[in-house]
Amino acid sequence: MLSWLTRSGASAVATALLLSGLAGTAQAKEAPTATPASAEISLSELPVQAQETHRLVFTGGPFPYAKDGAVFGNRERLLPRKARGFYREYTVKTPGARNRGARRLVCGGMPPSAPEVCYYTADHYASFQRIRAAAGR
Q1: Is 89 a catalytic residue?
Q2: Measured between alpha carbons, how far is 121 from 50 in angstroms, rounded to an integer?
Q3: Are residues 27 and 51 in the same domain?
Q4: How far apart are CA 55 and CA 78, in angstroms?
Q5: Looking at the structure, do residues 71 and 123 belong to the same domain, yes or no?
Q6: Are 106 and 126 in contact (CB under 8 A)?
Q7: Is residue 50 located within the same domain as residue 100?
Q8: Choice among 30, 52, 89, 116 that is catalytic
Q9: Active site includes 124?
Q10: Which CATH number is 68's domain given?
Q11: Which of 4, 45, 74, 129 has a CA 20 to 30 Å removed from the CA of 32?
């Protein structure tokens, strides 16, 4: 009887540990993470359409989409936390796409035509790359 109880107890403990590990994994996936500082890209490495959108941001437009310049809420919390209204989003044209596609620039700072920082996402906010500041900006 004692050996069965020991085996059963060990099994229950192993099951509990396994379940708690799975719960921890689920929680880890839900927890937002900051964009790593190493996730940077130079302006010249971006697709030409993103370079054009970046130029439009710094010249104040005109932008091809009505939603360009709208406040980006950072709901994914992948970008550094800032006050609401700090970040604005801009569509990066995707050749062949019938809609706005998944590519965006998200820039932050005031005025919007002179942002402090810009990020590129090719996957509709699932990940971001910080655009390294160009010389003179």
Answers
A1: yes
A2: 10
A3: no
A4: 24
A5: yes
A6: no
A7: yes
A8: 89
A9: yes
A10: 3.10.450.30
A11: 45
